[in-house]
Amino acid sequence: MISSRAVVLLVFCLSSIPKSLGFVERSWAESIALANETVNLMTLDEKIGMVRGVGQFSSRCVGNISPPSRSFIVSGTNITIPPLCFNDGPAGIRLGGSNVTGFPPAINVAATFNRDLMYSRGVAIGEEFRGKGIHVYLGPAVDIMRNPKAGRAWEGFGPDPYLGGEGAYQTIMGVQSVGVSACTKHLGPYNQEHWRYGLNAEVDDRTFRELYWWPFMKSVEANVSALMCAYNEVNGTSSCHNAALIGDEGYLRTEGFQGFVVSDWGATHDTAADNANAGLDMEQPGDWILIGGGVYSGLEAAVDDGEVTEARLNQMVTRILTPWLRLGQDQGYPDINFNAQDPDGTDSLNLNVNVRTDAHTALVRQIGSASAVLLKNNRTTSDGTATGTTIRGLPLSKDIKTIAVVGQDAQQLNLDCGGGLNECNDGTMVIGWGSGSNNVEFTVPPIDAITDFAQGFATISSDITSNDLTGGPAVAEGKDLAIVFANAMSGELGFYNIVDGNEGDRNDLNLWWKGGSLIEDVAAVCNNTVVVIHSVGPVPMSSWNTHPNITAIIYAGAPGEQTGPSLVDVLWGAVNPSGRLPFSIDDDEASYGTSIVYGIDPFPVLDYTEGLFLDYRYMDSQGITPVYEFGYGLSYTTFAYSSLSIEASASSGSVSFILTNTGSFDGTEIPQLYLGFPSSAGEPDKVLRGFDNVFLASGAKETVTIDISQKEMSIWDVVSQEWVVPSGTFNVYIGASISDIRLTGSFTA
Ligand code: NOJ
Asked: Which pathway features in its UniProt record (predicted)?
């Protein structure tokens, strides 16, 4: 078996090439000084051109600006500002012409619990954006999965703020390491699609800081270049006009953010002066797009009238130029070489530059297998030993001679669906729909990968054109093995993209296309049924997960274009699964304690009264045992935890323990650290505050150390407006999931 760390390092070496790109990063201070000098030389018109999008359909990118047509010489440096290209994002390039990689979305990277993979994906995405001449990557999306049906939750890292913060940090560090600006979105909180253009999220200060804000805070720590404000209102004021969020005294600037705030596309609903004075530095796409926008057409007049000071306009332009200079985008940055207005990539402006590399493909495959979560595995072997001839369960052996592949989720997806928005669930599900989708042109579906791999040792029969409840079981009956596929999908609300009646948010948690019935019907006739779920979030499983004929279940999420090969790697054991659930799976939405508001007109108020209690935090507090809990996932081997030692003070903590691979396969364990705050703190019983990914050969052991920072042991104190370490006893829980705690200790702060 190949060590996952070895592969990561290999991909890493291939990917980390900023030196050869020939640009020099500047410090923030140097960049601000250069930007200031440049802005001082600009005319009013030139400044306005810098802060206003050029119009939704007038750009070769998803967004752009009109830079000054002349160059400036400042401090001996030639400053020639190009049209700044903004593009989706976040899971690779959307609308960038052909020859791009279909990366997995963030929810699958979260399921790896692997910082190296999070970072490497960022580097690879950055390389592709740079190769197409895109200056600003519209990602990462860090919206918390407040409710499992939220349409765009898969674009982010799930319901846990710590995991989301680590994901955001690593992604940004990776993307920006190759000189591409990242733009964290959407501030927020922005947690459902229905009524998003005007709903009001009412959230208290502490909940906001500790949950929804946390990944933005980590983004600022990662020196993110830009940040996108959301469509909806927050505490009664539109996000892009919300000084409490984006103003000089607001969350963002007091955290030390030095880049610029850009509106979501059409998310400006007020006057130019309202938005500019609240802290919005750039409006995109610049014109009115049915839902809002176009307000900076009035900015020049607002400056002339004195409603917006020229000093504020200068600050806006400086904040836009600063990250561009900081990342050295003034030095040999590639020209824009595609046309976002041409989803087919056939127009002459689309050079279809090939930004795919073998290393990117290998990385996508690796993330796909590292994010596959093995939920069940009843492996029995004919001679009763762990290594004997396999008759049922995983990993599969080549002694399995007849294999049925069932379910339309196994077949190639519709590659021509929705003009760059992937607006259908037709074939295997590798990513959701909407602006967070990517080109899915090179997808390798499960049926192709399984058929290729099994050549020479097994025969494959399939029924995959629809979820046919007669045909599927008929093919499965009498086979050594049936692999049954089912999926669930969601996406972004748009004007036309209602997919099978789902307006972005999922209508319910169910599998699509009778997937649950298909699984049950196949399991009824084949006593070695392996279930593969491709989904954007939790789906009900309790009606079939304990069926004795279901020998294994893999929750593969939304794995990106190498879905088939990454699954084969796990099925036949080239990769020992180490994915862990980045959310809890339960049948009933009520177990999550939140809901999606569907049918209220006018715009609803969403009260975030659940506070800090989302997902496992809520279930824990209510004594709800989900079907599979947060952080859960099996391996082909087993691990033992021992010898916990804790060194901690009120300013930091360091927790060590010994991890041993006690099984017969090499494999990666994901030890997790949950913190129990002093009871006076009013926190959930256990909150995630650390994790690692540790590869161990069979029989090997290692001392693992997880550090906790002062902020990670703090709560937000609304009175002092500071992070405060509560005094008292902290419990430390080390385990293999939120409920599978193996070691417990404590310290006093
Ligand atoms: C709207 C989406 O909310 C945002 O995430 C995206 O970046 C823009 N459209 C541009 O496509």
From this structure: Glycan metabolism; cellulose degradation
